[in-house]
Amino acid sequence: SRHRTRTKKIPCKQQQQRRRDKTIAWNYDTPLCVKQNNKMSTPVLRFPLGGKVVPGDRLGSIRENLLPSNGTYEQGGHLYASVVGTLGVDDAVMKGKSKKVYYPVRVSPPERKPPRVLQVGHVILGRVTRLSIQQAFVEILACEGDFSNTVGTEHEANLLVPMGEGMIRREDVRTGATDQIKLQEFFRPNDLVLARIMSLGDRRYVLGTAEPSLGVIRAFSATSNALMIPISWREMECPVTGDKELRKCAKPPPKLMSQLISQQSEAG
Asked: Around Cβ 235, how many Cβ atoms within 10 Å?
């Protein structure tokens, strides 16, 4: 029997040229441009322009006519982000005798607000670091107007940059307090507290929590490490074990309280 041998058709040069001239869509995670007739119209990037990138994110290849600019660097033929920020592209530049077009890729870091100046009368958010017989030492994390959106979770509180250190004396814990009170019954290390700046000390701010709206706003159980719930101005209860611990609980304003409740529910 005769077997027909199939021969593979080889496209002619005209067909090959037509295929090259067709529009080629680049298969990236987020395709941003199309290459037509071997001419680059816009740069090829792995992230959308205006998107957020972090250090180490691969942005694109230098083979796609990309150049490193502010906030980026080149390694192994690829561009990477060196800072946290927004991805952007500068105006195209032409290089060489052939006037080849290149696109500088940049990452713009977010604008930072100037730090607030702590003054007497400001309400601060702080973390209790240690206790002594006479006073509780507090690490100031944020100032009035800055902490309403940053006290929902432990992770968010850890991201805050300390602004200074303060202390709460025994006589400033509550109204009518005497030197006989025990600070261990009002605060514990790692508690988040709201306090008011009463005066400027030599090295630390003198803080007070005598007002009903000031005091502990978040504390964790010593037994289960669960977030406790205030049941009175002097007690918090663990929702897991039911154990009660003494604290000087704050009663924040309704607006701040609703933000705290919503953020804690999202965190859970």
From this structure: 14
